[in-house]
Amino acid sequence: MIQSLLRSMELLEVLKEKNRNFSIAELAEAMDLPPSTVHRILQTFCEKKYVIRDDRSHTYRLGPALIPLGKAAARGIRLQDAAHSILTQLAKQTKEDAYLVIPVGNKGLVIEKVDGPSHLKVVEEFGYEMYMHCGAIRKVLLAWQTPTFIDEYFKTIIIHDQAFPHVRPDDLRGELKKIRQEGYAITRGEYVNDAVGIGAPVFNSEGELAGSIGIIAPEIRIDTPELLATQRDLVQFYASALSSDLGYEKHDVFQ
After folding, report:
1. Which domains does the chain have, with CATH numbers?
2. CA-to-CA separations, 78 to 28, 83, 156, 165, in angstroms, rounded
3. Which residue from 34, 95, 105, 187 lies 20 to 30 Å from 148 (Cα-Cα)?
């Protein structure tokens, strides 16, 4: 273990636990280190705004650069932790495999999956990536991207790239608009023959898209409009439940 790095992390821990400003002498005493060593560590952290120096009192406190790091870590950890129990319930209620997918670049990545009870299934495993226009659960991710992102996606993926499945740009734009209005996506046989996908968005405490959840099933098991509507309602219900668990308060995001 790198000793200097360990000391640096310990200094941040001291500042975090006490939640107040510290002088160099106080930090040196708390960490049992020479003041010169503490000063060097503080200088490095101050350059990156991980620590802020109060010039009047010559004391130090945690800085604003740590805030986005903490938020990013909280979003990532809480999303998967909270999603597992939700997906377990979704798989139990729908009797189908349930997925959590997040956007990574131009693709949707499966980061959590709970198997349903049926042996006949559409296989898509943890860590599997595909372009965002592939299937219902990923199309939800694309539908809630910014207009700039979507325009660039069409230029680089839909128009100039030989992406599978092939789609008509105008048709896809219309579909994305409909997905945002209705709050869910349903697809049939887009990249797996005879399969049905249903997806709905998940939002975090800041009202931002965190990911999407949904199910993928053989078409023969969702073979009536009534059953399709039931499964769709369950996907939307559990997507809303996961959003609530992440601290989301409903805004007008379906537009």
Report:
1. 3-64 (1.10.10.10), 72-245 (3.30.450.40)
2. 35, 8, 32, 32
3. 187
